Amino acid sequence: MSVVQSFSDKSFSEKLLSALDHIEYRRIEGHEDFEDVARLRYKAYKAQNVLPVGASHLLDEIDFVPHAYVFGIYYYEELISTVRVHHVTSEHRTCQSVGVFPDAVNELLDSGLTFIDPARFAVDPDIVGELPTIPYITLRPSIMAAIHFDTDRVLQHIRPPHAAFYKRIFLADTLVPPTIAPIYGFELTLLASRVREVRPQLMRRFPLFQSEAYERRLMFGEQPTMLSPPLTVLPTARFASRPNSPEMAFLR
């Protein structure tokens, strides 16, 4: 890596951390929060002209399976983006990617691999210009989940024009080349990042993706009852990136 590129990465990483200072993550559990997420999904997908065929309301049955984790990302306490992650194993195969690419995903599951499958990625189109770092912030839970559950891969079923981003940032490999997805009516491709292999480089380049173990437990552990207030989680990336943190010890 050149000195110029190194300084550029450092500058951008600081911008990411600075934006993260004003972010809260919320595990979506209650009816009202799910309705907010559904409205945001619809608004974002309509703006990008990528609504699923026949979509009128964007809550899915698979939002509510036990191995699904739906998150709202709040900026100055306003919902600005959302993502859902599934912890996918041979026993729990339900996820967005297996619905789109069943042969490829099931073959890997049959071989014993486990995955995190992020889906329903949606960003408020009104905030993108103000906060261009929001895609990284929104995808952060998928990396945290891979570490928490110690999975082999993070899957990315995406539109082909977005593949370069995932290959550059997450060092993703192509599993399935661009293919028409009937549920959407346009092409998708399937990529996957080898979590354990890419983690050291990813964390060094983008400390935003680092996290303390207790943050991951709050995000993916057992949640309070439905009568409890929604659990809001503050990011720990700045703490995890300190020289004496367990995360940094892992990277050395």
Automatic annotation (TrEMBL):
Q: Out of the domains of life, which is the source?
A: Bacteria
Where is each N-acyl amino acid synthase FeeM catalytic core domain found? 36-192
What InterPro entries does UniProt report for this protein, alphabetically?
Answer: Acyl_CoA_acyltransferase, FeeM_cat
Question: What's the protein called, per UniProt?
Answer: N-acyl amino acid synthase FeeM catalytic core domain-containing protein
